[in-house]
Each structure stands twice: as structure tokens, then as C-alpha cells.
Write a sequence for this structure.
């Protein structure tokens, strides 16, 4: 047997330590939590994507009584970006979570499906997509989506 170790890295910042553009993107994600449709979980998630041309595309989680029919904020945002701006790489994606009357103290982590979509979006354009996860106590910054899913699945894996 051979044991392998997969490592990832992130940086933890306070809001004040971030650049003005990162703070602005996070504020957009925080604002989008207000547009969440989450009558079942009451867990509002907002996301904002900064495209290479400076466009900001935003989304929020959208639930449905038939739970599998809902969609996370990260995917609504990235799918809207890719559908409406198919030639624009996503430079950064900010995510914020709001529940029980306040933003989460610790940064919320994207689900596995969202991580896969983030990874494929990054792979599609052949350049890293920074990921900013907002929490009241800290903001986690990943230099690339691959850091959230280091052993990812790609189209070339389907080629047999």
C-alpha cells in the first residue's frame, strides 16, 4: 500500500485586511443573502462573481419544496455568469451565509456539487478563480477553486 496526502491552503483575513475590491465583492454577496428564497432551511446564501471584464454577476440560494429541485447560491451565480458572459473568465467568487438573524461567525463552506462547478468553471477558462468565504470572525481566501477540491473530476476523465 502507498499512502498519499492531499494538501490545500487558504489565507484567513479580517475584512479590514482585504483589498477594497475584495471587500466590495463580499458586500455584494452579503447583500444577495436578502434575495435568497430559503423558506425551509432559513439559511440564506449570497454569492457574487467578478468577471475578467469587471462585470459582477450575483446570485442566491433558491429552495423548493421538492428539495433536489433547489439550487445553491454558488451555482446560480456561476451558471448565470457562464450563460450570460460565456467568454469571460471568473476572476473571483465571494460567498456569504446568513441565518438566525445574523451572518455566520465562521465562513460557510460550499457543498461538493458547488465545488465541482467552481472547479470546472476554473478549468474551462484555464486560469485560477479566487474564492472568498465570508464569516464575521474571518474571511477565508483560496487562491484557486482547486484548493477546495484538490482531487477533482474533469471532462478528460470521461475519455476512458
Amino acid at each position: 500500500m502507498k499512502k498519499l496526502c492531499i494538501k490545500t491552503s487558504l489565507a484567513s483575513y479580517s475584512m479590514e485586511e482585504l483589498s477594497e475590491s475584495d471587500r466590495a465583492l463580499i458586500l455584494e454577496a452579503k447583500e444577495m443573502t436578502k434575495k435568497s428564497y430559503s423558506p425551509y432551511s432559513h439559511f440564506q446564501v449570497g454569492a457574487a462573481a467578478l468577471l475578467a471584464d469587471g462585470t459582477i454577476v450575483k446570485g442566491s440560494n433558491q429552495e423548493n419544496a421538492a428539495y433536489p429541485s433547489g439550487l445553491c447560491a454558488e451555482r446560480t451565480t456561476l451558471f448565470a455568469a457562464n450563460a450570460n458572459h460565456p467568454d469571460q473568465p471568473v476572476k473571483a467568487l465571494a460567498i456569504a451565509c446568513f441565518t438566525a438573524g445574523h451572518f455566520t461567525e465562521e465562513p460557510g463552506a460550499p457543498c461538493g456539487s458547488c465545488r465541482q462547478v467552481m472547479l470546472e468553471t476554473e478549468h474551462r477558462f484555464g486560469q485560477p478563480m479566487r474564492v472568498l468565504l465570508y464569516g464575521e470572525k474571518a474571511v477565508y481566501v483560496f487562491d484557486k477553486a482547486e484548493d477546495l477540491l484538490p482531487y477533482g473530476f474533469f471532462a478528460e476523465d470521461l475519455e476512458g
Remarks:
- Helices lie at 20-32, 73-84, 112-125.
